[in-house]
Specification:
This protein starts with 6 loop residues before the first helix and ends in a 19-residue tail after the last helix. Helix 1 packs parallel to helix 2, helix 3 crosses helix 4 and helix 4 packs across helix 6. It has a three-stranded mixed sheet. Helix content is about 40%, strand content about 5%. It has seven helices and three strands; from the N terminus they run H-E-E-E-H-H-H-H-H-H. The radius of gyration is 16 Å and the shape is globular. The protein has about 190 residues and is mainly alpha-helical.
Length: about 190
Amino acid sequence: MYYPEALEPMAGFLRGIGIGVEYGDGAAGGFLPGVNIRGGVIHVDPDRLAGSGDLLHEAGHIAIVPRAYWPRLNSDLQGDARAQVEAAEQAGDPAVGLLRRAAESGELMAQAWSYAAALHLGYSPACVFFPGSYYHEQYEGDHPTQVWLGSGTHFGPVMLAQSGMTGFSGIVGAAWNNGLPPFPQMSRWTVD
């Protein structure tokens, strides 16, 4: 596992912001090895986990969804998000905009969220962006996704800023200001 020493501090951080983390068999069957979401709780098997940062990435998918919808999140995050948008539209729930953003841009938002969380915890973003992650097996220097986030050319921070979780940064930050400190600083770790 990449960055095994970061696993417990990351789990503690996630629990501190209200995201449940449990160790054991519930991690089987997830999108990534050794980590799975069941009922809005992250299940982890450290023996199968590729990198401790995968825990942060999965948490990013949860954090961008309003808390009332967390219990409805499971392994199929994109399918769950689309179903939640439909349910919120039918119910007239004002959270439909946040849910739609999570459904449409959840992967990019989770990448940006996990990058900011790694930095906040004092770890290199390499704990999230390691060889083999995000379809990049070989590269020179830093992982391409880490480079895009660090240079301000990744779309995830824009979506986090539009959700009120951080300020605009990078090339977009020159044009827009929502009054919050710029990414990767986070004003809040969950959307509500």
